[in-house]
């Protein structure tokens, strides 16, 4: 945004990743991402080879917390679903591929159902089978992520940041889906979509499926939905979630993620800010934090590096 508004309109950045021994990888990898002036999309390269942005998840996990996410609990289910899928992707890198295939098959199904000349049931059977196969991967990955993340949240020290209780609404009206057997889930989903063809055709979209899922968050100490909590409590719940995910990624992947905390320090009092810096130092990963005042980072310690941006450029480090 800065380079488009105040700079020349493009940027490029590259990095060499040196895996920790605990990650099981040996050789370093070079990644790069850039945006040409007036280009509409970014380019991603891994070891000099152009690839998709999703491919980066196979090499490193990235988490971020930005001011726009403060509305997560107030907005519709789609925002929380995207947040859930970003978290899931850091543990299960194939999650994005499954979701992309699911959406492609669903779009074809919707198009076929909307054909005024009618539709071929056998063609729909094939599309719904693809949807069921991909949806099963998506559903089970989300379930596992929510379970693992809930365990990490339970380990957090009381009183530092608000603890959350998590519940997954899967987007499908079927109690039979409580099974964790993929061979049982697939035919159940296919049956749901087969029975809903007429109603889906009438409304022009698929009404049930993993694309309708929602992540329900509750303030544990108050047994109150996050949407009804105060603004400060909502920020604390979100920060607690992200810190728990950092622990989960470190445990599962063998190395911590790259973490961006945008304007987070400004919303904490000095004591909690100092606690946050201590927690982040203990994680051992690379953390990027932004703020408008240098005083916000006075207790960050000597391990921190400081940069100042102006008109899309780094003009000084202090």
UniProtKB/TrEMBL annotation:
<dbReference type="GO" id="GO:0005524">
    <property type="term" value="F:ATP binding"/>
</dbReference>
<dbReference type="InterPro" id="IPR001238">
    <property type="entry name" value="DNA-binding_RecF"/>
</dbReference>
<keyword id="KW-0234">DNA repair</keyword>
<dbReference type="GO" id="GO:0003697">
    <property type="term" value="F:single-stranded DNA binding"/>
</dbReference>
<dbReference type="GO" id="GO:0016887">
    <property type="term" value="F:ATP hydrolysis activity"/>
</dbReference>
<comment type="function">
    <text>The RecF protein is involved in DNA metabolism; it is required for DNA replication and normal SOS inducibility. RecF binds preferentially to single-stranded, linear DNA. It also seems to bind ATP.</text>
</comment>
<protein>
    <recommendedName>
        <fullName>DNA replication and repair protein RecF</fullName>
    </recommendedName>
</protein>
<dbReference type="InterPro" id="IPR018078">
    <property type="entry name" value="DNA-binding_RecF_CS"/>
</dbReference>
<keyword id="KW-0235">DNA replication</keyword>
<dbReference type="GO" id="GO:0009432">
    <property type="term" value="P:SOS response"/>
</dbReference>
<comment type="similarity">
    <text>Belongs to the RecF family.</text>
</comment>
<dbReference type="GO" id="GO:0000731">
    <property type="term" value="P:DNA synthesis involved in DNA repair"/>
</dbReference>
<dbReference type="InterPro" id="IPR042174">
    <property type="entry name" value="RecF_2"/>
</dbReference>
<dbReference type="GO" id="GO:0006302">
    <property type="term" value="P:double-strand break repair"/>
</dbReference>
<dbReference type="GO" id="GO:0006260">
    <property type="term" value="P:DNA replication"/>
</dbReference>
<keyword id="KW-0742">SOS response</keyword>
<dbReference type="InterPro" id="IPR027417">
    <property type="entry name" value="P-loop_NTPase"/>
</dbReference>
<keyword id="KW-0067">ATP-binding</keyword>
<keyword id="KW-0238">DNA-binding</keyword>
<dbReference type="GO" id="GO:0005737">
    <property type="term" value="C:cytoplasm"/>
</dbReference>
<keyword id="KW-0227">DNA damage</keyword>
<keyword id="KW-0547">Nucleotide-binding</keyword>
<keyword id="KW-0963">Cytoplasm</keyword>
